[in-house]
Each structure stands twice: as C-alpha cells, then as structure tokens.
Amino acid sequence: MKKITICIPSKSNLRYLKMAIPSIRKNAANPSHDIIIYVDEDNDGTREWLEANTERYNLKVLVNPNIGEKLTGIGKAYDTCVEASETDVFMIGHADMTYCKNFDKNALEHLQEGTVVALTRIEPKLHPNNGEKILEDFGMYPEELLEDKLDEYVEERLGDDKITNGIFAPWMMYKSDHQAIGGHDVRMHSCREDSDIFNRMLLAGYKFVQPWNAFVYHMAGRGAGSFGNADTEEDRIRHDKWKVAMNGSTREFIRKWRSNVKHTALMEPIVNPIYDTAIVITNSNLNLIGALEPWSSDLFTDCDYAPYFESEKYNTVDNLLTKLHTIDEEPTNDVVINIDGRTFTQQDFNMLAELGAIIKQSGKPGRFKLGNFTVKINKIENKQNDNTIL
C-alpha cells in the first residue's frame, strides 16, 4: 500500500493534536505514513508535547520561524508541509479530527493522477447537513470523544460503496498535481484558502471523489475557533480572532473571484464567470466604497476615498492606489456598473454579487437596468481561467 504524508497545521491546537495524531497511528492501514505538523502558534505547550512525542508517533515537526510575532497563515503552512514531504501523495488534514479505521486505504483506492479524494466527515449536530456528511454525535470536544462507539459505528459502514463528488478536508492528491496549479494562494491568509484551491482544481479539470467508507470524525471547526457558541474564555477569544481573520480572507476571496464561496449541496465547487468590471458610484460614502470595492476591477467615486485607502491598503494584495479613481475619470473596463448611493439597496447588492452569472446569461454586449443600477457591457471576456495557476 502506498505511503503518504499527512499534513496538519496547528495554532495552539494541542488539545486536538493529542486526539488526532494517535488516531492516525491507531487507524491507518499503513502504519508507516509520514505525519508533518506545522506549528504556526503555540500558546499551550504544543512544541513541548510534540518534542516529547516525536519518536513515539514518528512525527516531523515544522515551526513558524516568526512564531510569537507573525502567523505564517494556513495555506503557506500547508504548502510548507507539502514541500517538505518525501512521498508522491499527501493528505491535507485538520487538528480537530479523529481519523477512523482504514481512512487511508479506502481513500487511496480511488486516487489517480488528476483526482482529488476527500474523506467523508462524521460530525456532531452543529451545522446543517445537505447530504455531504453524516451527523452523529460522538462528542463535542476531545475529552468527550466516545471512541469505542465511534469505532463501532465506522466498522458497520466500511463496506459502503457510495461515491459522491464533493471536496472538503481531509483531502489527498498527488504532489505533482498540487504543484502544477501552484499550491495554495497565500492571499487567503487565515481562511478561504480551501475554497480558493478547490475552485482552481475544478478549473484545472481535476476530478473530485468522496468515498463514503473513508471517515473522519470532525469536531466542526472547534480547533480553528469557528464555532461561535464558545464554552470558555479561551474559546471566546479564539472565536473573536477567527471572525476577524475570516472577514479579511473572505474579502480577498471576493476580490479574486468576484463571488462569494459557492458549491453544490454535496460540496462540489461552483465558479462564476469573472469579468473586467468598473463600479461607478455617485452620491457615495466610505461605507459604500468598503462594501463594493472588493467586487470591482476598478472603482470610481465622487467622495474622498483617501480614508478608505489608508485603512485598507495593508489588508489586500490588490493595488488600491491604481484601483480607486475619482468620478471624473472615464472607465475603460469591459463592464461598467453605475450606482446611485441614495437608492442602492441590499437587494441590489445581492444582484450585484451574482452579476457574473447574469452577464453570462445575457450573452452579448449592451446596456440594461438591474434593480436600481445600470449595467453596460462593452465586451464579454470571461477571465476565470486566469486564476487557475498561481
């Protein structure tokens, strides 16, 4: 059976690593897989524990060279692990997961070049299920894990031959396929790095496979801090940090893809067309500029945008100096949207967020009104494939 490398980043996740790492060694069909842990933050003794258990669990530990000062970011952490791997295949994992019996063997049976294989998540009943996972409660925290009951549940389902086409962590692929599209985009520093690379995998023509006999038990984002109903002050602080990071990474995702994260019910990515788009705002204000700037290639406004520029310039890789314009400049973009800030509504914003799909349906240049704003299409040239390879 092929040996793989399992890559897990950690931001003060010792509580979860103590669950995840032993589960890999217990339940992998191949006991010789490499495990690489990237320590991006350590406020809980992670490095000390890993050092004490490196030989026991046969671990390779990488540490953020700027730990305590600046986070590497999850995408870069993953790619550092992948670059350090010595196997043809790697798996992207999370710390807040228990890896179940034969997770590796049952996933590898479906892996080919040009294919990405995702394990099926079993989760407690915290988030809605659209058919892409299994909702069963075997504990909300590592200390509460009902390991024997989980093992029994998984054992009964190891013969399931169901296959769907979703993608979510953990996922595995050939290292060469990962390198071919440039790995993760570091502009999605703390979140959305997965949705970005999934979009790019889709555009590159990779096939998604989710076998329903390769399982992890996922504690639903508690390791990252994404679960809002925190039980301790530590969890509340972690969640507040996560919200700030998620907002920043989501804005970067929108700047790149001109769309919110979209996928089918079974978690197969949906990528809207991307067009060279100018947004022209009259009767504008700083709040409106902040809301609309990520959705544009260029933004033209009749108010002083300098305060927005100063507050946002370090939060994006986009060059806001060339992206923001005064209203007296003439846009030359393929698509020009004219908005009156006095009449622009939330419903208008919702339509703007789907403009790529709307323009694709229109199929030809021209001018039309959409809600309270107007759209002028000079040229239709979908630029989504420009995002495929970094």
Walkthrough of the structure:
Helices cover about 35% and strands about 20% of the residues. The longest helix has 25 residues, at about 235-255. The radius of gyration is 23 Å and the shape is elongated. Strand 13 (about 275-280), helix 9 (about 285-290) and strand 14 form a beta-alpha-beta unit. The protein is of the alpha/beta class and about 400 residues long. The chain has 2 domains: about 5-255, Spore Coat Polysaccharide Biosynthesis Protein SpsA, Chain A (Alpha-Beta Complex), CATH 3.90.550.10; about 275-385, no CATH class. The strands form 3 sheets. The protein has an 8-stranded mixed β-sheet, sandwiched between helices. The chain contains 13 helices and 18 strands.
Number of domains: 2
- Tell me, briefly, the overall form: elongated
Strand percentage? 15-25%
CATH homologous superfamily label of the largest domain: Spore Coat Polysaccharide Biosynthesis Protein SpsA, Chain A
Uncertain residue ranges: none
Instruction: Tell me the name of the CATH class of the largest domain.
Output: Alpha Beta
Distance between the termini: 32 Å
Rg over CA atoms, rounded to whole Å, is: 23 Å
Report the helical percentage: 25-40%
CATH architecture of the largest domain: Alpha-Beta Complex
What structural category do the secondary elements indicate?
alpha/beta
Q: Which fold name is given in CATH as the topology of the largest domain?
A: Spore Coat Polysaccharide Biosynthesis Protein SpsA, Chain A
Overall average pLDDT:
95
